[in-house]
Fold these 2 entries.
Entry 1:
Amino acid sequence: MKLFYGPGTCALASHIALQEAGAEFTAIRVDFSRNEQRQPDYLQVNPKGRVPALVTDRGVLTENVAILAFVAQRYPAANLAPLGDPFAFAQVQAFNSYLASTVHVAHAHGRRGYRWADDQSSFDDMKRKLPETMGACFDLVERAMFKGPWVMGEAYTICDPYLFTIAEWLEGDGVDPARFPKVHDHRTRMYERAAVKRALATEGRG
Amino acid sequence: MKLFYGPGTCALASHIALQEAGAEFTAIRVDFSRNEQRQPDYLQVNPKGRVPALVTDRGVLTENVAILAFVAQRYPAANLAPLGDPFAFAQVQAFNSYLASTVHVAHAHGRRGYRWADDQSSFDDMKRKLPETMGACFDLVERAMFKGPWVMGEAYTICDPYLFTIAEWLEGDGVDPARFPKVHDHRTRMYERAAVKRALATEGRG
């Protein structure tokens, strides 16, 4: 398999999960500074022009929520999700879907406001509001969603690399991570995991 | 089970899926015109203050992507997803995650710009751009994602009610649905399904 990623992007979540699963794959860097994600070669892989994209022998998968569930189901021995329990599995998917459709989206307004507006004044407005929106998201995660010690409780799941990936953006978004002690402690423990170290090293952050 | 929904919201996707599955549930209307989704009673059900929320005997599930997968897994006889095939299941989840985190998000900028900005000029800017962003999303669905006759091909899945639900917003977002013949034909065929008729009737649109 091949995982297309950009350093500092949300693709890190899928990258870590593949490492946790012991999957055989090659990580291929997409250079966002040269806009490679919008070039014809990459658009043939993923017409959305986004990362992550996971190339398998069956075809290409996109979207972290889907790739993470795929890794958990494809490598059941890694115990990355409660596969035999539809309710518990849905809780995992609900957490990850919240990260994808609310938290990541809030973050994107800091730098990619052009997706939804045209005027510089709108981009400035969005950027000003970013600490408030990201802070509100992580307040909800800390207060109402995070079970501890891992996101879903005693068992490490595909929620953990995704939360870690997005929590790493807090400082850059003007939010003090110390406001969220459980999430902050989680992040510290994630750095100690071998799979996280391998993924970060591959992405040039070792 | 109880499904909390608001008429005209994305909760219709989960509502239709529950009808398709033959699930026993009660649909409970949340009155957005009275801001009920932000009142303490509802925030106890879903601290996010959003719909859908599905109350089960195990607890509450939120997020369409998760509820739809739950319905498919909990009612396997309804054949609403390729449950035994991790790759095919991930394709279903990828499609639904795109709807949740890109298409629904694009739509939300038309009326709920206050989530990401503060100034009226930004809201006006977002609203102006809405036909372009929603049009681009549906162009990609039509051109690169929709297999036909159903979203995933020959088999009706949990992708179909979700696409139908969001495609119903096109006119209101200033996009001519006739630009997307496959999606438009899909929507016409969806209206003919008994489960869709029942869900729409329950929501007062029968």
Entry 2:
Amino acid sequence: MAKQARSQITREALLRSAGLVFSEQGYAATTLSDIVAAAGVTQGSLYFHFESKHALASELIVRQHANARATMEAVPADGRGIDTIVLLSATIAGQIADDPIVRGGMRLSTESPRDFPEVATRPYEDWVTACHAVLARAVAEGDIAPGRDVAAMARFVMSAFTGVQVVSQALTQWDDLFPRLREMWGFMLPDMLVESRRTEIPRILAIIPDRA
Amino acid sequence: MAKQARSQITREALLRSAGLVFSEQGYAATTLSDIVAAAGVTQGSLYFHFESKHALASELIVRQHANARATMEAVPADGRGIDTIVLLSATIAGQIADDPIVRGGMRLSTESPRDFPEVATRPYEDWVTACHAVLARAVAEGDIAPGRDVAAMARFVMSAFTGVQVVSQALTQWDDLFPRLREMWGFMLPDMLVESRRTEIPRILAIIPDRA
């Protein structure tokens, strides 16, 4: 195997291990020795790839944000807006459950936004923009009343998801994220939808996989 | 002035300065020198009161939690439940706006719950318990339908407030917390209340002071 390919594999393994360690311990309590031990590499190997704990954490946040942007862009443009926004939230929840890089990046960006100013506010702003576009589609499709303040609704959807995710992490290390997410939409959809579409709520909630 | 009283004043000044510095910079980026500089005391004076950054941060979290408990207990028992839960959220928002110890404790406990395991999950659990009791009163008073899952609603109220607070901190260092809080209740009250009480939403929203 080419040296470069091996180096790339080590780098990915380091990022995944760092993601898990940061997601469990937080930024302040994590040492580079913890990450070296979890990754099963040498300290020298870690320093070859990342010059500091801050550099490693920044890379995780950047990767998680890139991942979130890819998720926003990969969303099917032909689905109904209201289905799409629920699907988006479930997709992110699935990534938190399964992807160490997302777990680490998510914890780091919610716990220490001002330690990473280059990536602190963009993810929130991008999510609000993405939610706004999808909710505007839902208005055009007659699921949300035309008079609603969709910009405010987008901000609230993003904030509520953030809160559900932060609390689920604090209390259960995200073990109860899926049931809490279903609960969240159960409380929000009745107000979001026009009355004639509320019969669809059980169908929409079923978009969220029955995990954990 | 007695030596003990002066010592107590210095300790409070240190906590207030530390609260502001932690709330602006986060735990990881804050050094004891930053706090010494902000408080205008000597390094020796800081070490006389707190043995480490972790000890200072723990004290802030403990104080903020004690403050939150006092807030829950001070809530008038004679107000309507639905008014009370909105008032509680506005009271906490006011403390975040005005009290450096609450600002610091709030940021530290949402950013690093697992760095402070002794105080990590209790505040969330206490808030859910307090919200649950107040919402149960709202059911008894006919504002919330008896069939609603009030335990889940309490969890969601607490999570949504957490998200609004975390996002407001990340994007504006809490400058927009009051308008965002009013928005949150504007989205949540229509689903929470029975139909015949929804005409009261403007009155209930007016409980939140018109700040910032």
